[in-house]
Amino acid sequence: MTLPLVYHPSYSALMLPERHRYPIGKYHALQQQLLALGVPASQFQQPKPLQQHELELAHCPHYIDALCSGQLDGKAMRRIGFPWSKQLIARSLASIAGTRLCAELALQHGLALHLSGGYHHAFYDQGSGFCLFNDLVFAAKSMQQQGVKRLLIFDLDVHQGDGTARMLADNPDIITCSVHCDKNFPYYKQQSDWDLSLPATISEQDYLTEVEQALSCLLNWYQPELVLYDAGVDCHQQDELGHLQLSTAALLQRDRLVLQSCRQHQIPVAAVIGGGYQRDLAALTQLHLQLFKAALELENNLIASKIKT
Description:
The protein has helices at about 25-35, 60-70, 75-80, 85-110, 135-145, 160-165, 205-220, 250-265, 280-300; strands spanning about 5, 45, 110-115, 150-155, 175-180, 195-200, 225-230, 270. By secondary structure, the protein is α/β, with parallel strands linked by helices. It has an eight-stranded parallel sheet with strand order 2-1-3-8-7-4-5-6, with helices on both faces. The protein starts with a strand and ends in an 11-residue tail after the last helix.
């Protein structure tokens, strides 16, 4: 089976102020690295950007209109963390569509990966923390419309998925789990269905044990028909906005654990790359590549052997 990968050229097509904190180039760098390692261009599927009105499945129409038209006030844009531009909206509409496509492909093939996504700080009527719209919530609700009865959002980004938790608090069929560092953004946490708030001093082995136990319980108790996996790498020891101390090898172990556990339960997985904030783009790309290595290993692809640990 060919592992489906989802990517759109607009993901990195955004001009930001010099020294802006967001590593916008990582999406293009990741795709180029995968191509260089031998992944054929035909393996990448390009999403069709959403129409603005489609976002109403997850977000407030007034918020959507204000943000997409550039009428959102300055304070709200500062909360998001990006200066407004047409490119910003275009890449967001493509990226949200990409996570939906990834979920659809996962249902067809058992596993699919999105070279973007994980915008879990966006709420129903406001954005936050570099997140304009919540792709995880949108994709989950889209899959419900397509007949999926129960889903699990398994979020291993170092920051709590506060927007996801709040938006889905009243939806008993989309289970939210966030495993994050306790003393980190956001300051005010929301209540997921399952929160693991970990100390910055936690060891790699204890972290992996916590993840394994949480996932095992969730898969057995809720028996989801689809898992949306946020494989953020901002829990790495070199990340500048995370406080956990995971090594690159531990990230690979984590991603193997998640993908293999879901495969053993015969549950499809749609994975997004989530957060990662090293300024060294080459180093950051290697961290995000660990997810793809784990997935390619699962599909018995020799390309995985070329990816550094």
